[in-house]
From TrEMBL:
The lineage of its organism: Eukaryota, Fungi, Dikarya, Basidiomycota, Agaricomycotina. This is GDP-fucose protein O-fucosyltransferase 2. Belongs to the glycosyltransferase 68 family. GO terms for biological process: fucose metabolic process. It is found in: Endoplasmic reticulum.
């Protein structure tokens, strides 16, 4: 048995001394300046979009139902927080002493072109920070770290498609006990992403003052309830509450559901969501009988979906072609956006320090190349028959075979003999780690290194992800999104050698 794709919402590296932190069950109009878009006028662009839509509609009727029939929706862990949407927690939060970067340093000029100035108490009002000649797009995140990053990629990709400036929410998944909002720019280099894309990528903290408690009402499309037949409300998210936004949701037209009537999938295609960004097609959508606007809970105000700050409740389940396409060869969100989403200098510095210490490199030497394995266990064992973990998960022998393949490929392709192997895993069984040690592979021990105390709750995950991404060879676990993202980084950033291991039965990875 295989788990459905997208199950890797809760990857955490091996627990450290703050064990409890890991054992909890918490789930958890713009201008585009890229050359190919500059060539198209808005009218031409809409024509292209409309043509794609028709083509897509034709294609989806003939191909999709059979191709996707095996796809099973991954289990939604319910959002546990039943507080009033705008009632922020009053229990004190732990102090996160990592530096908080609100604005991308060194490129303020870039952002001035799409904002009036510094963030204001309300994003709309007087003064306000949105420019009257610029259109924006926003959406919320609500999963684990990796899936939130995949979601961010979709938000930016849809902004590019619709000629809008993306305004991204802070990261806020439960890494430890708390969902502490953390600026995306404290983990990823958004200035570099903006440069690569050719248009600015904004954060909400640049638009609305993060300290402000003044409420804005925002009209937003409710996609979730249309695409997910079991949903009875828009996708719940903490972001609007953190941003003091009172959301008035409008159900999207029925055609945003990719596979009509199919209960086991929640995807929409980019091509069905993009038209809502344009005045005439938005008006057409609003005229559909099933499209209804609900009042914002705090203020009781009903507003239609905002035309300037276009908003969709949740874009994780958005695809170009078919559900869960992030492991396909064709995955435009990766190639256009996420490939360019690199770590901040700070994450790189801490990750590299950690890596050099692990490899025992003296100060005067360069960091040697390494191979990283990501063995995703954790709740993947729920798919193991009879809880036979030994037979279900990849054996040390199978990993050895893969390591040898990677070493051979790197020797042939690059003439580099890579001998150092690092294991990353959320496995808690020490006897398994003993076998890792017997194989001669290195272990990242966040407990021993006091990672949480030194750097904060996010860093066990960030250091593992950094070390994976900095490898010349990578071996991941089939169906883990954490592995899939690491695999793509190693391939695209270093032209590295990558393999994914199959699992589920003792001979699953035989090949
Ligand atoms: C747009 O904003 C500029 C600068 O604030 C202002 O001068 C102009 O009058 C505004 N235009 C409209 C149509 O509101
Ligand atoms: C790679 O290096 C190891 C350790 O130094 C050595 O034992 C091995 O023979 C080398 N392999 C190749 C193909 O050069």
């Amino acid at each position: 048995m295989h788990p459905p794709l997208g199950t890797d919402v809760e990857y955490r590296p091996l627990p450290s001394s703050a064990n409890g932190a890991y054992s909890s069950s918490h789930y958890n109009s713009g201008r585009l300046e890229s050359p190919w878009m500059r060539k198209l006028s808005r009218r031409q662009w809409i024509a292209v979009l409309a043509a794609s839509l028709i083509l897509f509609a034709l294609a989806s009727h003939t191909v999709l139902p059979t191709r996707t029939s095996h796809v099973k929706e991954f289990e939604q862990v319910p959002f546990e927080d039943s507080r009033d949407p705008l009632d922020l927690p009053d229990t004190p939060r732990p102090v996160d002493d990592t530096p908080v970067v609100h604005v991308n340093p060194g490129s303020s000029k870039y952002y001035e072109a799409v904002l009036n100035g510094p963030p204001t108490a309300k994003f709309r009002g007087n003064p306000h920070n949105l420019r009257n000649d610029t259109r924006y797009l926003t959406s919320w995140i609500n999963a684990g770290f990796t899936n939130d990053v995949l979601n961010i990629g979709n938000i930016v990709y849809l902004a590019r498609m619709t000629d809008r400036i993306p305004v991204l929410p802070p990261l806020d998944s439960y890494i430890g006990h708390w969902s502490t909002p953390r600026p995306l720019s404290s983990v990823f280099d958004l200035a570099r992403l903006s440069e690569a894309l050719g248009f600015p990528v904004l954060e909400w903290s640049q638009v609305k003052d993060p300290e402000s408690t003044e409420i804005d009402v925002l009209g937003c499309w409710n996609i979730w309830q249309v695409a997910n037949l079991d949903a009875i409300a828009p996708r719940e998210a903490r972001n609007p509450r953190e941003l003091y936004l009172d959301m008035s949701y409008t159900t999207a037209p029925a055609n945003v559901k990719l596979i009509p009537g199919y209960v086991h999938d929640s995807h929409s295609s980019f091509w069905s969501l993009a038209p809502l960004a344009f005045h005439d097609m938005r008006a057409k959508a609003l005229a559909q009988p099933e499209v209804q606007t609900s009042p914002a809970p705090q203020t009781g105000v009903s507003v239609p979906p905002d035309e300037q700050m276009l908003c969709y409740d949740y874009l994780f389940y958005t695809c170009v072609d078919e559900p869960f396409e992030y492991d396909n060869d064709v995955y435009p969100t990766w190639d256009v956006v996420l490939k360019h989403l690199h770590w901040t200098k700070e994450v790189e510095r801490i990750g590299n320090e950690f890596l050099r210490k692990l490899l025992g490199v003296p100060d005067y030497e360069d960091t040697p190349p390494h191979i990283t394995i990501h063995a995703r266990h954790g709740d993947f064992q729920n798919w193991c028959p009879d809880a036979d973990r030994q037979g279900c998960f990849t054996s040390m022998e199978a990993y050895s075979t893969r390591i040898a393949e990677i070493q051979q490929e790197l020797m042939e392709r690059k003439g580099i003999n890579v001998t150092r192997v690092i294991m990353t895993s959320d496995e808690q069984d020490e006897s398994w780690w003993d076998r890792v040690r017997e194989m001669g592979w290195l272990r990242i021990d966040h407990e021993k290194e006091n990672t949480i105390i030194e750097y904060g709750e996010w860093y066990p995950v960030l250091i593992d992800a950094y070390i994976q991404s900095a490898s010349l060879g990578f071996i991941g676990t089939d169906r883990s999104t954490f592995s899939i993202v690491a695999k793509r980084r190693v391939k695209d950033w270093h032209d590295g050698a990558v393999r994914m291991v199959k699992w589920g039965t003792p001979d699953a990875d035989n090949h």
